[in-house]
Amino acid sequence: MSDEKRIEWAKNQCFIALGNLLSHVAMLKIDSCAIGGFEAEKYDEILGLRAKNLTAAVVCPIGYRSDEDKYQTLAKVRFDKKDAIEVI
Known about the structure:
Elements: H1 3-27, E1 31-32, H2 40-47, E2 62-63, H3 81-84
Antiparallel strand pairs: 1-2
């Protein structure tokens, strides 16, 4: 496997760990949010990852929301299934 394919494969493996992380923190009633579309190069630069031969693959903040968060008790707004899912 080429270095490029190996790196891509390794990055994809991170999503398995990310899925487990999201499930486990949810069971512990800890908030989390997987973030896509981030600038990995900026994370690599700021965290000094290149010097360690590493690169950012996933981003997921984890923590407890503030008791002062006025939105935490509001009902979730969801699209109706018929407007969001098309069976083909």
